[in-house]
Amino acid sequence: MFGRMLVLAAALTVAQVGGAQEYFGDARPDAPELAARGSLPVGVRTLVVEHKDQLDILHASAGQPDPRYTRKLVLEVWYPAQLAAGQKEHTVYTDVLGSGPNDPKRPNTPFQFNGRAARDAAPAAPAAPAAPAAPVAAQGARYPLVIVSHGYPGSRLQMSYLTENLASKGYVVVAVDHPESTRADKAGFPSTLLNRRLDDLFVLDTVAAWAQPGSGSFLAGAVDADNTALVGYSMGGYGALNTVGAGISAAAAAFVPGGKLTVNQQGNPQYEAQRDQRIKAVVAFAPWGGEQKVWDAAGLAGVRTPTLFITGDQDDVAGYKDGVLKLFQQAVNADRYLLTYVGGRHNSAPNPPSPAHWSNPDDFQSYSEPVWDSRRINNINQHFVTAFLGIHLKAAPLQAYLDGNWKGFPQRAQLGLVWQHLKPQ
Length: 425
What we know:
Blueprint (H helix, E strand, L loop, with lengths): L1 H14 L26 E14 L12 E15 L8 E6 L13 E6 L2 E2 L2 E2 L19 E7 L10 H8 L4 E6 L11 H22 L12 E11 L1 H9 L6 H4 L15 H5 L5 E7 L11 H4 L6 E6 L7 H11 L5 E6 L19 H5 L8 H21 L22 E6 L3
Parallel strand pairs: 1-5, 7-8, 7-9, 9-10, 10-11, 11-12
Antiparallel strand pairs: 1-2, 2-6, 2-8, 3-4, 12-13
């Protein structure tokens, strides 16, 4: 116990050295070039939307096969902002520890951490088209949209290092709390299997409605929902791939009785008709499902959207050789990349552990990597995601950063990374 208290005290000291605030995502001295924060101030707002008349799969039964309910989705929205006089890019996010409710070993306990964004700031008007020499600034009449989906369990706040960074580069970023899948309300797994794709598409439609002139939303006229990327971690990665054409197999559809998952199944005409052309790119962090045989080759061949896969080669949740690597190899109709952290496990996406995580080893390990420094992973992710989304959402001249020559990395700083690229067949 005394040793643990010393560790916690050390963590608190690191977070508050010299009275300075720690902001996740700030660049280390060895960060690659495109990890740097963009030039635009960032605002953030919390919104709640309601997806009505949805199948309540966790309460479906033989006697009541189609119960309905309203899914309330909490959204965190980051966006380029116009700061008022004296307004600072600083907020405090509140999340929870634990692995779901009613777990006495890891109780749901609120914790806070700093964010480099101005709460409820006014949105900035999109800039005029930028010159090609300014590839990560806002371009075009409106800001592209990025939808972020967390793991199971997780939260909309667990990748704030990336969401804030992208907003500073001219994106509207919307992270979703998926009901029954957060650390606060974790419930049966069938809800996650069914609803990730449906939640993603609902959020896309919702933001598209907000974007219309005269909608009354602060995003009216500011966001380009026809130019959207999905970013998903673990089950969020599963949902992103399922959204862009990776229909699950017949065997996976049987994971839930009653045929309730066939709406996400490859070959189902209803599923095929919901392929959304507004989604131009996918970033899949440690996507779950390959090792679990959720997809067969025909399902993965349905992905035609450019995709960046990111994971560790020791991923013990999604798997690597029979997991993420297989997904990368078998998505044969997509232009796709794979960034592998050698020695990395499953936590390739989240923020570093906050000081509050240090009091419980399980909470700490739910965010940390045993070999890699999480802040370094965060910077590398920022670099490659910036290049990938810049190419596909802004037509920015950033391809050289994805050509495998480690452009933008300081000398000797690419150790431990493997980069692969496969073109569509």
